[in-house]
Amino acid sequence: MSFICSSCKEEASQLYTDTIVSSLFIVVGMRFHGNHKFTKYDNVTLEFEPTNQYDENAIKVMVDGIHWGYVAKDNNKCIGDLMRQYPKYHVSTDRIMNYNLSTKLDFEYSQNICEKCSNWVLGATLLGIYPSPSDL
After folding, report:
1. What DSSP string describes 20-87?
2. Do residues 91 and 108 make contact, with C-beta atoms less than 8 angstroms apart?
3. What CATH number is associated with residue 99?
4. Which of 4, 25, 36, 97 is the most buried (most CB within 10 A)?
5. In terms of residue numbers, what domain contains 76?
6. The dihedral formed by the CA atoms of 114, 10, 3 and 108, expressed in degrees to the nearest 10
7. How many domains, in total, are found in the chain?
């Protein structure tokens, strides 16, 4: 039986699911919602807001059920697609970057990838680089 790697799209006899992929995204609008400053202890969740009058792709950023901001418009289409594709995602505050009017957070998800890509991601993680293995 063979499987398709979600990274390189090649056939593989075995896939690994323990690989975490991160996508950095920007949170805006905190000044309109109590000026929240995110901490590494925050339990951050994302929620679609299709009835938003300004942006049909709006995604609310919630902390413990309280709405504190939105995924920036430049990021919300991509993050929304990832939310649909990887419903077991996690928002990490480990590399949090708070600014005056925005914050950067990590959208993390697991991928089913082949051994070659798994080894590449491990090496890239250790070196601190994150381009796609298909870019090599």
Report:
1. EEEEEEEEE-GGGTT-----TT--EEEEE-TT-SS-TT-EEEEETTEEEEEE-HHHHHHHHHHHHH-T
2. yes
3. 3.30.70.2330
4. 25
5. 20-112
6. 50
7. 1
Task: Read off the tokens for 20.
Answer: 């975490």
Q: What is the C-alpha end-to-end distance of the chain, expressed in Å? A: 27
Domain assignment present for residue 98? The answer is yes
CB 30 within 8 A of CB 44: no
Evaluate whether 72 touches 102 at the Cβ level (below 8 Å).
yes
pLDDT average, residue stretch 95-108? 77
Residue 72 lies in a domain: yes
- The per-residue pLDDT for 48 is 97
User: Hey, what are 133's tokens?
Assistant: 């293995």
Give the C-alpha separation, 39 to 64, whole Å.
12
46 strand-pairing partners: 61
Stated pTM of the model: 0.69
Output the six-digit token pair for 61.
């950023």
Let me know: does 13 contact 3? Beta carbons within 8 Å.
yes
